[in-house]
Specification:
The protein is mainly beta and about 170 residues long. Helix content is about 10%, strand content about 40%. It has an eight-stranded antiparallel barrel with strand order 1-3-4-5-6-7-8-9. Strand 7 (about 125-135) and strand 8 (about 140-145) form a beta hairpin. The longest helix has 12 residues, at about 5-15. About 35% of the residues are buried.
């Protein structure tokens, strides 16, 4: 598996998932989108902020290890040292002595659940990977690929070229 491709998919995975509070109104660049109102701290009441912080959802915060990678329908060898650390809507991926950082936006209201990861490729190019995910207990699966549209199902075949990655939350 190519390191950059692997980093992108791993990033798109874990990246992945934050409590539901990040759904929909997250803006990784910090710029207002067309028609978007400025939602500064002054506009949010203390109770509303506490409600967001305590919103029950899929809290993916923690350390995630890759346990399986299927790339274009073929199982790839898994580097047991690949580690992704998720905190809030940010992630740090450590693989092969290199570190990659980025942000993500998850939408668990969609079926299947959607996640988009945002990071730089090390040469200053901004990368976005649109994927789908599912989360159960301490296992997360993410499916997607760099340069492809978001998949509609968890499938990796030679025809669709998607990568399906399974993560396991590391025990504390």
């Amino acid at each position: 598996m190519k390191l950059l491709y692997g980093l992108v998919m791993v990033a798109a995975l874990g990246l992945l998932l934050d409590p539901m509070g990040v759904v929909g109104n997250q803006n990784p660049g910090g710029k207002k989108e067309a028609g978007q109102k400025d939602k500064g701290k002054k506009d949010k009441g203390k109770k509303e902020k506490e409600k967001e912080d305590n919103n029950p959802g899929e809290n993916l915060d923690g350390v995630w290890m890759v346990t399986e990678v299927i790339e274009a329908g073929k199982k790839s060898l898994v580097d047991k040292n690949i580690k992704m650390v998720v905190k809030g809507n940010t992630f740090t991926l450590e693989a092969g002595g290199k570190t990659s950082k980025g942000t993500f936006r998850a939408d668990p209201s969609k079926t299947p659940k959607e996640v988009s990861a945002f990071f730089e490729d090390g040469m200053g190019n901004k990368i976005q990977v649109d994927s789908i995910y599912e989360f159960k207990d301490d296992t997360m699966r993410v499916c997607g690929a760099l340069g492809k549209t978001r998949p509609k199902e968890f499938s990796s075949t030679a025809e669709n070229g998607y990568e399906l990655v399974t993560y396991k939350r590391a025990q504390k």
